[in-house]
Amino acid sequence: MMWAASARPKIGHRATSDVVVRLRTPEGRDEWLYCHSAVLAAGSDYFADRLSDSWPTCQILDSRYCVEVRCPDLDLSSHVNAFRLLYASEPVSRFGVRGALGVLQAAVHLGCPRIAAACADYLESAPWDEADEEEVLAAVPCLGGGAQYDRVLARLRPADPAPATAIFLSAFRHATAASSSSSASRELKSAAQEQLEYMLTEDDDAPLLALDVGDSGAVKSQVKDSVGGLLKRFSDFTSSALTRQLESSCSTGGGGDGELQQELHSFVSDISWVCQVLGKLEMMRCLAAYWVGASSDVVAVVDAVCLGSECLKTRLKVVEISAKVLEAVAFGNVVLPAEKTVSCSKVGLDSEVWQGLESAITSIVMTLPSNTQAEILSEWLQSKHAAFLDLTEAFDAWCYRSMVARRRLAFMNNINPTS
Q1: Does residue 280 register a pLDDT over 90?
Q2: Considering the chain, what is the average pLDDT of its residues?
Q3: Is 277 exposed, middle or buried (0-12, 13-18, 19+ CB in 10 A)?
Q4: How are beta strands 30-35 and 19-24 bridged, if at all?
Q5: By the 8 A CB rule, do 103 and 85 touch?
Q6: What is the mean pLDDT of residues 191-197?
Q7: Do 51 and 66 contact (CB within 8 A), yes or no?
Q8: Is the pLDDT of residue 167 over 50?
Q9: Coil, strand or helix at 298
Q10: In the predicted model, what is the mean pLDDT of residues 30-43?
């Protein structure tokens, strides 16, 4: 039923009301509302049935129907607001997210589809904080099925694999893109790196990104392309930086270059981050092979560009990368040709950059041929940094194996004198 604005009855108007609604809670609180049967029946399925002739009995209170409605104590005010909305089309937004959620529950209880739809529309579009999300997640699923309630919960449901993969690849391209002088671009890159780590984190819950067998090839191919682009830019930078430093040394006698230091730190920070992601994707080989091959250039550019104590963070990033690469090789996650493995082991002897990697280097050394081990250990013992790099375990193992090897060789010669 539709009323003109001036003729529409008002809730609480005793002179014209023909229904008294008594809201009662289990705790004994109650609220009396003077209402109009035409308004209630038009807006509420519950009251359309309750006030119909088919309802068996109805109490009379001074010539008015009296209808008792039981509701939880915490929902009393929400039920009152729902009754008020039957009389006036007020925007649900005035109640806020939690208020609208309470009115939604009351509207469902009273069978008020118009009010329920307005609340659902508002909740779907309104911003929520974390506490609001918990409230919505606890209340809405209990309201029963329905497309409008599914829309409210849509933002809380996990994304399907295809959109999750698409956002991962887009974010990865941003995370490995060339650094920009724009603060907005730097913030976007930092946010992309942070969230990608979170997407791949495994704790009590499964990671946000789970690559199926069918999808992993395409995803890893695009990741490899992005990493390749980053390493190509880093190679170009190292070549250019060494050339500039050589020219600067010839003309001015050397000195640090703040711009080069900043750019170097940006590169090694990105590569260090990439190591973490590649480790989780089991793709360290595409970085390890490059890093081992470029190790001499990396050491040279670090020594040339990082001349002061202010470059300590950059050196530590290089250490982090080297440690992850050496660990991947040492634990067999990455298999490199023997000549590259030798280069990977020797790099610890050239600069203080590689201190603190004894365990990984020892594991690699002990997998090499005995003559190669002897060469590395000899260089280590002659190095001025020998005190900082502890290869005594590898040295002990080499001595023991060498003695055992002699006995084994003599034994084999005795068995087969013609060999």
Answers
A1: no
A2: 80
A3: buried
A4: antiparallel
A5: yes
A6: 88
A7: no
A8: yes
A9: helix
A10: 92
What are the residue ranges of helices labelled H in 111-201? Answer: 113-125, 130-139, 147-153, 161-175, 183-199
* pLDDT of 225: 94
Question: Of residues 306 and 344, which shows the higher confidence score?
Answer: 306
Token pair of 339, please? 């000549």
144 by DSSP, 3-state: which? Answer: coil
Angle at 59 between CA 57 and CA 62, to 5 degrees: 145
Residue with tokens 């649900």: 92
Cα angle 375-289-381, degrees, rounded to a multiple of 5: 20
DSSP letter string, 325-378: HHHHHHTTSS---HHHHHHHHHGGGT-GGGTT-HHHHHHHHTTS-HHHHHHHHH
Count other C-beta atoms under 10 Å from residue 345's C-beta: 31
Is residue 65 helix, strand or coil?
Answer: strand
Exposure class string for 61-88: b at 16+ Cβ within 10 A, else e: eeebbebebebeeebbbbbbbbbbbbbe
> Could you tell me which of 352, 397, 404, 403 has the C-alpha nearest to residue 376?
397
Distance of CA 19 to the CA centre of its chain: 56
Model pLDDT for residues 316-371, shown as the tens digit of each residue = 888 888 888 888 887 777 777 666 666 655 554 444 444 445 666 777 787 787 88
What's the pTM value of the predicted model, to 2 decimals?
0.65
pLDDT tens-digit series, residues 115-157: 999 999 999 989 998 899 999 988 888 887 778 788 888 888 8
Sign of CA pseudo-dihedral 267, 272, 275, 276: negative
pLDDT score at 296:
84
Question: Locate tokens 């809670």: which residue?
Answer: 25
Burial readout 348-382 (b: 16 or more C-beta within 10 A, e: otherwise): bbbbbbbebbbebbbbbbbebeeebbeebbeebee
